[in-house]
């Protein structure tokens, strides 16, 4: 556990972590995001992310943009924009992302919300179409999951979250597990997975393997 982490608590399935400073919180969030992006890249080859804007995101974006990820395989979306705002206005959210994030990486594509001089419904329909066009195939049914390998993202008292096929799942296990540990899916219980420790190596974030 990082020395910067002051306290952790859990509300149902929501893990809440408290850090000493904004910088340490941003760095921790960037570490987790980078691990998820890297794991998804290794499974799927291309990743879509949605990033938020605002001063509360600065330390996170500054830490994430220096991660050694293959950004050329990452499509970047963002969450919202002021109605009718000129995209060149200093308060524009796409401009914010350009200044604090995009100018430091080379993503595969960036999809801004451009509302200036356009009807809001047209803007929404256009952005919805862009999101649908980049929607990955959903993994459905137990046959697609049983036996799959994954990685523990967080774990406490027999339950936690795991990353399987680039997707974050709630999971439980009879064995004691820890963050970063490899697991194998043995069953699906509704929206939860039953997992067990997996001794077979699989690629995880930060590892390098010989060809």
Folded structure, characterized:
The protein is of the alpha/beta class and 211 residues long. The chain folds into two domains: 129 residues, Rossmann fold (3-Layer(aba) Sandwich); 56 residues, OB fold (Dihydrolipoamide Acetyltransferase, E2P) (Beta Barrel). 27% of the residues lie in helices and 28% in strands. It is built from five helices and ten strands. The strands form three sheets. The chain has a five-stranded mixed barrel with strand order 6-7-8-10-9. A three-stranded parallel β-sheet has the order 3-4-5. The longest helix has 23 residues. It is globular, with a radius of gyration of 19 Å. The two termini are 32 Å apart. The C terminus is likely disordered.
Q: Which residues sit in consecutive blocks of at least 5 with pLDDT less than 50?
A: 202-211
CATH class membership of the largest domain = Alpha Beta
| CATH-defined fold name of the largest domain | Rossmann fold
Question: How helical, in percent, are the residues?
Answer: 25-40%
Quickly give the CATH architecture of the largest domain: 3-Layer(aba) Sandwich
DSSP strand tally: 10
Strand fraction: 25-35%
Order of helices and strands: EEHEHEHEHHEEEEE
Structural class, by secondary structure, is alpha/beta
Radius of gyration: 19 Å
- Strand order in the largest sheet: 6-7-8-10-9
Total helical segments: 5
- Tally the structural domains: 2
Estimate the global geometry from the Cα principal axes: globular
Mean pLDDT: 85
